[in-house]
From TrEMBL:
It comes from Blautia producta. PANTHER family: RNA POLYMERASE ECF-TYPE SIGMA FACTO, RNA POLYMERASE SIGMA FACTOR HI_1459-RELATED. The keyword Transcription regulation applies. Residues 6-73 form the RNA polymerase sigma-70 region domain. This is ECF RNA polymerase sigma factor SigM. SUPFAM superfamilies: Sigma2 domain of RNA polymerase sigma factors, Sigma3 and sigma4 domains of RNA polymerase sigma factors. Residues 101-152 form the RNA polymerase sigma factor 70 region 4 type domain. GO terms for biological process: DNA-templated transcription initiation. GO terms for molecular function: DNA binding; sigma factor activity. Gene3D superfamilies: 1.10.1740.10, Winged helix-like DNA-binding domain superfamily/Winged helix DNA-binding domain (1.10.10.10).
Amino acid sequence: MDMDEIYRTYFATVYRYIRSISQNESLAEDVTQETFFKAIKKIGQFRGDCDMRVWLCQIAKRTLYDHVKKEQKQISVSEPEEAASPLNLEEKMAEHSEAIKIHTVLHQMQEPYKEVFSLRTFGELSFTEIGTLFEKSENWARVTYYRAKTKIKEEFENGTYM
């Protein structure tokens, strides 16, 4: 499969994944484009031991984290009145807040819960597709997803996500 075909096949999936995490269309577009740019550079490192969609979403997730870290660094470096003045920046950070909390909890979770939850929620894969990726049953994917979801709810209720 050449990069043009990979781009056409997986662009929408990667975009939806990042859009659901970031809740920001513009950021999702930028990160998705950068993801495919990075994928072109690293295609030789793709070993094929996971689905191409999973590999691309992992690159996208790391790219989004890099953008968020860079944005937070810029806010903390700027003067207080400069950081407080643009209301849209504050709103943007508030939108990211919940997504960052969820991803903090996800980052702390063990595999396969982390990956199954991400694939189902952000990658919009069916339980059948997830089961196939892990060489397990559809039922295994369902149970794993609901256990991950329960764990996330517990972490939020207990306030232990930080």
